[in-house]
Amino acid sequence: MTKSFDVAVIGAGPGGYVAAIRCAQLGLNTVCIDEWKNEQGVASLGGTCLNVGCIPSKALLESSENYARAAHKFIDHGIHLEGLSMDVSVMIARKNKIVKAFTGGIAMLFKKNKVTSLHGRGTLLKQENGLWKIQVKNNSEVEEIQAEYIIIATGSTPRQLPFIEVDNHRILDNSGALALTEVPKRLGVIGAGVIGLEMGSVWRRLGSEVTVLEAQPNFLMAADEHIAKEAQKIFTRELGLIIQTGVKIKSIQVEEQQIVVDYADAKADPQKLEVDKLIVAIGRVPNTVGLATDEIGLKINERGYIEVDEHCCTSLSKVYAVGDVVRGPMLAHKASEEGVAVAEMIASTKQGHANESAKVNLDIIPWVIYTSPEIAWVGKTEQELKSAGIAYRAGQFPFMANGRARALGETSGFVKVLADADTDRILGIHMIGPYVSEMIAEAVVAMEFAASSEDIARIIHAHPSLSEVLHEAALAVDKRALHI
Ligand code: FAD
Ligand code: NAI
Asked: Is residue 463 packed enough to be buried (19+ CB in 10 Å), middle (13-18) or exposed (0-12)?
């Protein structure tokens, strides 16, 4: 007999597995179908984020940052180390252990919440008598199940350059960049986006000569331009990344001894980069291959994303889509929040009660880049406000003038608060500095509660703490910062 469910979730990344757990918590009989296999060919839940994304990258960033501190910063504390060395295999094994614990943890959470977990590729076949038929294919084993509601959370895969194939041995995407067994002497990175900067940082800290080639004319164009300028300065001068913007890649040759990238620089002059390994990190594309039969007419836009409205409803009845496969930033926390919102909407529809809150506010999503110093922001950038013609006031405060930052020996960077010139409502908060990945939470809460810069200026912040930099930046909006 065909197994039947209230909800079938396709994909067990942070969008899918969270949606499945929330559906089950709300009393819905839920199945989650996922096809991911790890390097050993074993099914592994958690999608990109847990297997080859957020978690492993942060593990390597932490290890390499510890090494860099020991090599360059401990001396300031009077700590002398001799014969410092890095065992890359131990670092990678630690990362693998963390990944295994978390992916295994999802299997346990599924069990605890009574989510049925099926391994294989899910394909949406058709809707019959109000039930969707889904094929689940695991090698030669094919099973058909049915469910009333569908949540698609199939995520994304790395965008490829047309003229070179990733082999994850010498030409690497994120998976290969997270699994190098030794520090490459010369590392090239195509794309100065989030992955390029995080992965470039890891291997640079461990001693690689890292050159980053970026197509855009300016560095980190998604960020506030002052933050981007500061970041470029620090990454170049302090970390030693070689960053070239405005380049056009012409060709890549994989030779026996090296990889040669031919490109035109910002002045259109021909250049050559010779490296031992090359990371290609030029963005990601939504994953919809083989997801649904053509006949059912799932609408996909010209950029490959599944079309959804603000409630994540697709063009098909009772079919929702969340996470990287739909519009909005490709971030794990955005995927998860959409998963929760959709689960709550399905439950309320099925159980016959209204749910007004099941919607994700795409305007207030924090971004964090886990470089050193870290970069974090929420809301509008200064350039966005200018181009929208919105009058604003800005307040900025440097970490250099903060006691805790001095004690940490991490004084680079600043916090900037942007507030509406008339109402003082916060429109954006931008940070570059130590642990701003944690500090950004206060900014997100403030913005969700429609706070003014004066609200933050009047709230008591612990002393000495890094959060005082946000406090002072809020005071600076009204030109009354105290410690500068
Ligand atoms: P995914 O995590 O991609 O999961 C989709 C799952 O669906 C996969 O397991 C896939 O195998 C499966 N699947 C696809 N098609 C089918 C099918 N037809 N049948 C069955 N299964 C299918 N984001 C952050 O917020 N913070 C970070 O620090 C961060 N770091 C990152 C670092 C790297 C190197 C990378 C690559 C990404 C990072 N991201 C980070 C982005 C984050 O990983 C994604 O935004 C997030 O994983 C998206 O979640 P998702 O559930 O939409 O999709
Ligand atoms: P990205 O979109 O962040 O950056 C890609 C960069 O490559 C851009 O700057 C783009 O201009 C450049 N580029 C594109 N084509 C190019 C070409 N032909 N030559 C040279 N440069 C080119 O994408 P990335 O770094 O691949 O990461 C994908 C997504 O994963 C991110 O956008 C983000 O959503 C997510 N992510 C999030 C992280 C976090 O939250 N800390 C960490 C890593 C990834």
From this structure: exposed
